[in-house]
Amino acid sequence: MKRFVWADQHLGHENVLTFEHEGSPLRPFKTIEEMHECLIDNHNSIVRPVDKVYWAGDVVIKRKYLPILDKFNGRKVLVKGNHDIFKLEDYLLYFEDIRSIVVFPYRGVITHVPIHPQCLERESWAINIHGHMHAHKVMKEVYWEESHENYAGIFKSEDTRYKNVSVEQINYTPVELESLLLPKESS
């Protein structure tokens, strides 16, 4: 059994097709049906029925689209996001477990929204696998001092403790969980 993770599918959210990032469409699909087909095909091309998949929030925007979840392979675990607003019994038809957070001791934690950076200073939460940010990544300030005055200062750099698995970041395809967590030998 393999384990996978992804976030922000926004099934049934026609408006997501109108969102832009830096002047370009956030998602390259013409219709919601095309987006659904791509997500299902990409998912099922790597996830087998016995594999576990963590859906890190914002899965289905309109309740009538919940049955689409039956088309996705794997044993599903929902890590609830800000748009996952239906009753638990609605989700339990499709997910074997529903959580607000999933912790892999000494390796990482899955949430929907990125957690506060101080939380990642805990010994057991080294990596935060998250969604919510779609086209963005968590940044940190870095001080860089170069001998030439024009290069000294504070700059923004990607905070590598955060792994954004919003579908836009991962080519609309789940990612193997082990590739994102710290190796077991490090624990």
Number of helical segments? 2
Total strands:
13
**What is the CATH topology descriptor?**
Purple Acid Phosphatase, chain A, domain 2
Q: Which structural class matches the secondary elements? A: alpha/beta
Q: Describe the global form.
A: globular
Strand count, sense and barrel status of the largest sheet are: 5 strands, mixed
Q: Would you give an account of this structure?
A:
It contains 2 helices and 13 strands; from the N terminus they run βββαββαββββββββ. By secondary structure, it is of the alpha/beta class. It is globular.
Short description:
This protein has 187 residues and is α/β, with parallel strands linked by helices.
Search tags:
187 residues; alpha/beta; Purple Acid Phosphatase, chain A, domain 2; 5-stranded mixed beta sheet; 4-stranded mixed beta sheet; 2 helices
Helices, strands, pairings?
Elements: E1 3-6, E2 20-21, E3 24-25, H1 32-46, E4 52-55, E5 75-79, H2 88-92, E6 97-99, E7 102-104, E8 108-110, E9 128-130, E10 139-144, E11 153-158, E12 162-164, E13 175-176
